[in-house]
Amino acid sequence: FGDWRPTNFVIKNYINIETGSMNLNENNPNGEYIFYTRNEGTFKANKYTHNQTGVIVAGEGNFTPKYATGKFGLHQRAYLLSSNSDLLSNEILLQIVSSNVDYLNSVAVGSTVKSLRKNSFENMHFYIDGKFYKSLSLMAGETINNLEMYRAEKYGYEFIGWYSGGEFLSSELE
After folding, report:
1. What is the tens place of the pLDDT at every residue in 11-69?
2. What CA–CA distance (Å, rounded) separates 160 from 51?
3. Would you call 74 exposed, middle or buried from its count of C-beta atoms within 10 A (0-12, 13-18, 19+)?
4. Cα 68 from Cα 78, distance rounded (Å)
5. Considering the entire predicted model, what is its pTM?
6. Whether 43 contacts 27, CB under 8 Å
7. Contact of 124 with 55, CB cutoff 8 Å
8. Alpha-carbon distance 165 to 28, whole Å?
9. pLDDT tens-digit profile of 120-154?
10. Helix H segments across the chain?
């Protein structure tokens, strides 16, 4: 990764931010859909408001993000963050928000119950350096190797691995 220069990004340029429309009284323990609320715990509802992938953060209390995909309901005091850029996946967005929980706690407002506002997310920064890309490279390499091992097993050929530690290896068998 050589002389690559670290970069600081403002997240609002890469994501959509919205709140839900459901109320807590729409909770139904026998409901069909996951219902993300401002409270801790698992809730269900009879309806869904979203059918997508993104990161959920409660607007009050515990700001630990959750990864959501598929059909789900979203409480009016919970935030859905989703990527609007090919440069940022929702999986990486989850990692960024997870690494910024201390920041979210520091910008939360209120004296009794701390709560977040939309600009709490808009002003969040994330920092990308060579180590970040190296870790992405390693994850991609592991995924490539797993896929190739699956193909080798399925089609009956020997696979010795061709990606390791961020470097491509020779694919030729010795």
Report:
1. 888 899 999 999 999 999 999 999 999 888 779 999 999 999 999 999 998 898 999 98
2. 40
3. buried
4. 12
5. 0.71
6. yes
7. no
8. 48
9. 999 888 766 556 656 666 666 677 677 777 877 87
10. 90-98, 101-107, 118-122, 130-155
